[in-house]
């Protein structure tokens, strides 16, 4: 089966968060199952594109208020485990960032160029898999735009990685979408705006979320799309994300200070912790708590300053925070450094290598998320022998069980300062019960969250549409 994944992000080409991780791994595991799975994404001017060779496979022009020329480039070496196609629109997408505050034309152009290329291929795809709202208009255009008539019977799947962002724009831009039967314009609309995510939910053959629990939650909290998701629930299913167990393997991870396996976990984690604590002026003898992520409300980032301040009161733990986002929260987190020097530090920014070291160095990983469609960080933490402390939402509920309930992590019931602070207090007691803590560390490293099972679940879903 020939499958094209269409996405704004894909690791290692361009990653802002978990979407990049998923699209960078899922096709690889689908190819392992014998499918032919590739990725189509925008060409950005970044380190990856500047240091790799590409070959042009197609050139075209489309109209988006004015004409735009584009090329489809493919990566020459095949080290990724899947074919990669980059949509290069120099006048629209040639940037060193993935997202900006004005992306309507950028991602519309990306989707149109993608379909202009796909529609003229000798061998049509068996299935098109769209990720998030940046590819959300593709199911509509494939089904309704005259120019893509040849693709109208090709099944489409859309995966919602994050239902908060929907890509809305005004009806004054409807003419930018390649001509279609105007009586079908309602398929683009939600609450008087053109809403790419809503349109994808209406038009795709199947809709998936990245965990089963998130699918249920969206029916009651989906940033305005609740009714639509309830109405379309017959074609919706939650499939839990996996992790790329080649990229995220403490025994081979080239970013780590010292590699380790189940047998050497104690000395391996110690070496990474010592390096990190030296680098960031923390005490390696204390339990180390980490946060890694985007500093936005969904992740509960606004709660962190107070949770940290409460938890550092007794000076019996170390905390390391890696993240960026809301500038007010960044400032508050940085300000705390003076008060808790030697016990707390931050790295404001994005740093892939430091993230890997931190998963390895930390004893606990904090995720007080308000919304967490799946969450990958808790799964990376488990693989690196780090205990996740998470709010009981979305995929976190599907993947973490509590230590007081025969589980292996700490769950709290609500994204609040009180719940987050109390979970840390419980975790310190757990850490001090060192035999139990060590046994638990061995147990969590053995939990298998690799993509194998989930990649198969997607393939089964595709087959149900094709056969
Ligand atoms: N400052 C920083 N430096 C280095 N690395 C950083 C970083 N900030 C974040 N990361 C990395 O980005 C990724 C974050 O992934 P998540 O799945 O937790 O969240 P995200 O909200 O981006 O993804 C959305 O999509 C994914 C994929 O479906 C869902 O799991 C998730 O719930 C949903 O919100 C991890 O690989 C993490 O290590």
From TrEMBL:
The broad enzyme category this protein falls into is transferase
The protein's job, in short, is: Synthesizes alpha-1,4-glucan chains using ADP-glucose.
Involved pathway(s): Glycan biosynthesis; glycogen biosynthesis
Task: Enumerate the UniProt keywords alphabetically.
Answer: Glycogen biosynthesis, Glycosyltransferase, Transferase
Catalyzed reaction equations: [(1->4)-alpha-D-glucosyl](n) + ADP-alpha-D-glucose = [(1->4)-alpha-D-glucosyl](n+1) + ADP + H(+)
Domain annotation Starch synthase catalytic: ranges:
3-230
The UniProt annotation places ADP-alpha-D-glucose binding at 15
| Residue stretches making up the Glycosyl transferase family domain | 278-408
Which organism does this record belong to?
Gelidibacter salicanalis
- Report the NCBIfam families cross-referenced here: glgA
Q: What is this protein called?
A: Glycogen synthase
Annotated family? Belongs to the glycosyltransferase 1 family. Bacterial/plant glycogen synthase subfamily.
What Pfam family is a match, any one? Answer: Glyco_transf_5
The EC number(s) attached to this protein equal 2.4.1.21
A single GO BP: glycogen biosynthetic process
Alphabetically, the GO molecular function entries are: alpha-1,4-glucan glucosyltransferase (ADP-glucose donor) activity; alpha-1,4-glucan glucosyltransferase (UDP-glucose donor) activity
The taxonomy runs:
Bacteria, Pseudomonadati, Bacteroidota, Flavobacteriia, Flavobacteriales
């Amino acid at each position: 089966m020939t499958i094209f994944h269409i996405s704004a992000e894909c690791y290692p080409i361009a990653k802002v968060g978990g979407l990049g991780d998923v699209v960078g791994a899922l096709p690889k595991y689908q190819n392992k199952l014998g499918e032919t799975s590739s990725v189509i994404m925008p060409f950005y001017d970044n380190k990856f594109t500047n240091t790799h060779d590409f070959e042009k496979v197609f050139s075209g022009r489309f109209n988006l208020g004015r004409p735009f020329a584009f090329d489809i480039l493919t990566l020459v070496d095949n080290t990724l485990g899947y074919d990669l196609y980059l949509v290069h629109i120099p006048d629209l997408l040639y940037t060193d960032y993935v997202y900006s505050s004005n992306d309507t034309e950028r991602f519309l152009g990306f989707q149109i160029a993608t379909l202009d290329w796909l529609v003229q291929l000798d061998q049509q795809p068996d299935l098109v898999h769209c990720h998030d709202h940046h590819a959300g208009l593709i199911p509509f255009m494939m089904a309704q735009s005259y120019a893509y008539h040849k693709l109208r019977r090709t099944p489409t799947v859309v995966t919602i990685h994050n239902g908060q962002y929907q890509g809305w724009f005004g009806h004054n831009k409807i003419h930018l979408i390649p001509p279609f039967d105007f009586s079908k314009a309602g398929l683009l609309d939600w609450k008087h705006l053109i809403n790419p995510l809503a349109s994808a939910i209406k038009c795709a053959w199947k809709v998936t979320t990245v965990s089963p629990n998130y699918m249920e939650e969206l029916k009651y909290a989906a940033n305005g799309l609740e009714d639509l998701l309830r109405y379309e629930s017959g074609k919706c299913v939650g499939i839990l994300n996996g992790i790329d167990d080649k990229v995220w393997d403490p025994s081979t991870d080239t970013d780590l200070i010292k590699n380790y396996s189940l047998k050497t976990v104690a000395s391996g984690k110690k070496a990474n912790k010592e390096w990190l604590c030296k680098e960031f002026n923390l005490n390696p003898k204390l339990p180390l708590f980490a946060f890694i992520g985007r500093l936005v409300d969904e992740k509960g980032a606004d709660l962190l300053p107070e949770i940290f301040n409460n938890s550092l009161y007794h000076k019996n733990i170390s905390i390391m925070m890696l993240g960026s986002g809301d500038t007010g929260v960044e400032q508050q987190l940085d300000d705390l450094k003076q008060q808790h020097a030697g016990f707390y530090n931050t790295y404001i920014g994005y740093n892939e290598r430091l993230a890997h070291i931190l998963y390895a160095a930390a004893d606990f990983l904090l995720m007080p998320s308000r919304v967490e469609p799946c969450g990958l960080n808790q799964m990376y933490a488990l693989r690196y022998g780090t205990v996740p402390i998470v709010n009981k939402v979305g995929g976190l509920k599907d993947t973490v069980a509590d230590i007081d309930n025969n589980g292996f992590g700490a769950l709290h019931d609500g994204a609040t300062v009180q719940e987050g602070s109390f979970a840390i207090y419980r975790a310190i007691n757990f850490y001090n019960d060192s035999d139990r803590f060590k046994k638990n560390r061995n147990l969590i490293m053995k939990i298998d969250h690799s993509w194998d099972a989930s990649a198969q679940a997607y393939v089964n879903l595709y087959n149900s549409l094709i056969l």
